Amino acid sequence: AAILLKLGGYGLIRIIPLLGSPPMNLIFPIMVLALWGIIMTSSICLRQTDLKALIAYSSVSHMGLVITAILSQTPWGLSGGMVLMVAHGLTSSALFTLANTNYERAHTRTLLLLRGLQIALPLMSTWWLLTSLTNMAMPPSINLIGELFIISTMFNWSPPTIILTGIGTLITASYSLYMFLMTQRGALSTQFHLIFPTHTREHLVLILHLLPLGLLIFKPALISGLYTC
């Protein structure tokens, strides 16, 4: 999620300009399918019971935005795609790390059995909150900068796309909050007789994910492709 998807996006950025000017009858169906895929995969996330599957499907939704941005072949679209790829790579990897910390203790990925972990692991709950807010592009995260660039590009290409991108953004916020509430809030399950405390290495890994996301807020041009020395 953090590397392979980004290699595919980077390949599209490099290859499509070499093809010259792609015909509109080829680009249009792909962009429509990508926009529709954002809605479909985001909706699937709302029905997931497996934590790892939910995070994986959310990656597909975000990459749909990246595909539309790259195919638009505009400076704003390419910049937004670059920013969102870097932001999503760090955010998605952090979410998978958090899911693994839960699995190592609960030995299950079922959301219904992971309720109330805020009581047992309060510091890890803070990481869950920050990562979930970043995943839903809460300001001032660079995820928001990338999505705004892409949504502006798509609106300039075709105004009706604001409906699809807007609904996709709304559903993304919904399943991000759903994921946080289902894993952290509520009563702790009685099956957890003994939960091991969190380790320093786990917090270090999460810091190394979220610290770059925080620092890039001050200089997003470093990853937007518009940076000049």
Secondary-structure element pattern, one letter each: HHHHHHHHHH
Q: Which shape, going by the Cα principal axes? A: elongated
How many separate structural domains? 1
Average pLDDT, rounded to a whole number, is: 88
Low-pLDDT ranges: none
User: How many DSSP helices?
Assistant: 10
How many E-type strands? 0
Give the terminus-to-terminus CA distance. Answer: 30 Å
Give the amount of beta strand, in percent: under 5%
Alpha-beta content class: mainly alpha
Q: Give Rg in angstroms.
A: 18 Å
Task: Summarize the amount of helix as a percent range.
Answer: over 70%
Question: Which sheet architecture does the biggest sheet show?
Answer: none
Enzyme class: translocase
Keywords: Electron transport, Membrane, Mitochondrion, NAD, Respiratory chain, Translocase, Transmembrane, Transmembrane helix, Transport, Ubiquinone
GO molecular function, one term: NADH dehydrogenase activity
Catalytic activity: a ubiquinone + NADH + 5 H(+)(in) = a ubiquinol + NAD(+) + 4 H(+)(out)
Task: Describe this entry's structure for a reader.
Its EC number is 7.1.1.2. This protein has 229 residues and is mostly helical. Helices cover 73% and strands 0% of the residues. The chain has one domain (3-222).
Descriptive keywords:
mainly alpha; 73% helix; 0% strand; 229 residues
Question: Secondary structure elements and their pairing?
Answer:
Layout: H1 4-15, H2 24-46, H3 51-72, H4 75-106, H5 117-120, H6 122-135, H7 142-157, H8 161-184, H9 200-216, H10 221-224
Helix pairs in contact: 1-3, 1-4, 2-3, 2-8, 3-4, 3-7, 3-8, 4-6, 4-7, 4-9, 6-8, 7-8
Transmembrane segments: 26-46, 53-72, 78-99, 111-130, 162-183, 204-227
Family: Belongs to the complex I subunit 4 family.
Subcellular location: Mitochondrion membrane
